[in-house]
Amino acid sequence: MVQAKFWVMTKHFDGFPKNSDFELKVEELPEPTDGEVLLEAVFLSVDPYMRVIQSKNPAFPVGSHVVSDSGWRTHTISNGTGLTPILPEWPKDVSLSLALGAIGMPGLTAVYGIEDVLGLKEGETLLVNAAAGAVGSVVGQIAKIKGCKVVGSTGSDAKVVFLKELGFDEAFNYKTVGSLEEALRKASPEGYDCLFENVGGSFATVALEQMKNCGRIAVCGSISTYNDSTPQTGPYPYFTMIIKELKMEGFMQSSRQHKHPETLKRLLAWVKEGKLQCREHVTKGFENMPAAFMGMMQGENIGKAVVAV
């Protein structure tokens, strides 16, 4: 019998999450039956990365490494549904935790937003906010691979330094600039062809005014609004979108699962070639899951936030 630890939400968040919103529980798991596998978490994120430690499913031999959406758990019994094996050509000198980051969901999101939604072209100018995060940092690097000018907005001076190290043409700390409008105009006086939107709220309102005519916006996230107890309202930028003939599209990587295998191979190749750099913010210990989650929501991480179990 295996004892599994798991975190549950005791109540829905009222504003920003608190420690009291989470509870750590323990349960005994039965032995796997035919067709089942026992998963043990190695790294955890919003989408847990796991290995198979017992198996009665021939598709997943003991020792296999998989990605699974199983929640914040140390161990899970699975019938194999929804388990995604790590690429078989994964190099031994590349951390498997990147399967949760640049060579995982955040990387997939970056590629699809740039290629499928924005249709980013060589020579264009891209603006990305939350640029030092798991998605934003990959977005900027892929845009540079494609020969574009990249401007990143982020929330600390240390993150600005990080973005410059990644090759961003311009980067600024939105918390310390006197005027967001002026900072955007200074970074790219000619405006922006594309916006990769992770933040929403007032940032989006200001950024839309800086878009070039026929600009494109990929809406990936809205982190500035996630913890609002009262939904934000207005201003409503429809007139700007009409006059500038802007195109705005929301998207999720999960709707393109048929493209995942080939896209993951491309991301892995960029990492191996040194074209895609990966920074992780690693928290050690399963008991620190809530703290790691809240830290990520407050922007404490540079790159992908993961928990090493």
From TrEMBL:
Keywords: Acetylation, Cytoplasm, Fatty acid metabolism, Hydroxylation, Lipid metabolism, NADP, Oxidoreductase, Phosphoprotein, Prostaglandin metabolism. Residues 15-307 form the Enoyl reductase (ER) domain. It catalyses: nonan-2-one + NADP(+) = (3E)-nonen-2-one + NADPH + H(+); (5S,12S)-dihydroxy-(6E,10E,12E,14Z)-eicosatetraenoate + NADP(+) = 12-oxo-(5S)-hydroxy-(6E,8E,10E,14Z)-eicosatetraenoate + NADPH + H(+); octanal + NADP(+) = (2E)-octenal + NADPH + H(+); leukotriene B4 + NADP(+) = 12-oxo-leukotriene B4 + NADPH + H(+). It holds the Pfam family ADH_zinc_N. Its main location: cytoplasm. GO terms for biological process: prostaglandin metabolic process. It is found in: Cytoplasm. The keyword Chaperone does not apply. It is an enzyme of class 1 (oxidoreductase). Its EC number is 1.3.1.48, 1.3.1.74. InterPro entries: ADH-like_C, ADH_N_2, ER, GroES-like_sf, MDR_fam, NAD(P)-bd_dom_sf, PTGR1. It comes from the Eukaryota. One of its GO terms (cellular component) is cytoplasm. Signal peptide: none annotated. One of its GO terms (molecular function) is 15-oxoprostaglandin 13-reductase [NAD(P)+] activity. Monomer or homodimer. Belongs to the NADP-dependent oxidoreductase L4BD family. This is Prostaglandin reductase 1. The lineage of its organism: Eukaryota, Metazoa, Chordata, Craniata, Vertebrata.
